[in-house]
Amino acid sequence: MATLNFTKNGDKWVAESTVNKDYILHVERASGGSFSIYQRSTSSGQYKACSPLPASIVYDAGQVIDYAFGHGVYPSGGIHLRFESGSEVTMAEINEGA
Questions:
Q1: What's the pLDDT at 60?
Q2: Residues near 43 by Cβ (< 8 Å), separated by ≥ 6?
Q3: What's residue 90's pLDDT?
Q4: 9 and 89 in contact (C-beta within 8 Å)?
Q5: Per-residue model confidence as pLDDT tens digits over 59-89
Q6: Measured distance CA(79)–CA(54) in Å, rounded
Q7: What contacts 23, CB < 8 A, 6 or more positions away?
Q8: For 4-38, b where at least 16 C-beta lie within 10 A, e where not — what string?
Q9: Is the pTM of this model over 0.70?
Q10: Please, are residues 65 and 35 in contact by the beta-carbon 8 Å criterion?
Q11: What is the 3-state secondary structure (H, E, C) of the chain?
């Protein structure tokens, strides 16, 4: 289990991580609002929106987000993830599956 450290970036709270297998995300926030996840399969370059995400997560995810993700294919360097929250994140963890 790894802690995600969100920092303020403009009007969003942002954290980044890399995973090598399916994972579970747990996020606790000060209030609700938007929550987006972006991915890329290279260590540099542009992120692409992770889809399909349930509309309930993208537009108003609430204060607590618990969701399991499986991307199917994981390149040798892993999948690089960027999380953006519309409200302050008070605690977040990412746990890769066995």
A1: 63
A2: 77, 80
A3: 96
A4: no
A5: 566 788 888 888 778 888 899 999 999 999 9
A6: 20
A7: 68, 69, 94, 95, 96, 97
A8: bebeeeeebbbbebebeeebebebebeebbebbbb
A9: yes
A10: yes
A11: CEECCCEEECCEEEEEEEECCCEEEEEEECCCCCEEEEEECCCCCCCEECCCCCHHHHHCCCCEEEEEECCCCCCCCCEEEEEEECCCEEEEEEEECC
Report how far residue 20's alpha carbon sits from residue 18's, in angstroms, rounded to the nearest whole number.
7
d(CA 31, CA 44): 32
By the 10 Å C-beta count (0-12 exposed, 13-18 middle, 19+ buried), 3 is classed as exposed
Residue appearing with tokens 């929250």: 85
d(CA 84, CA 66): 15
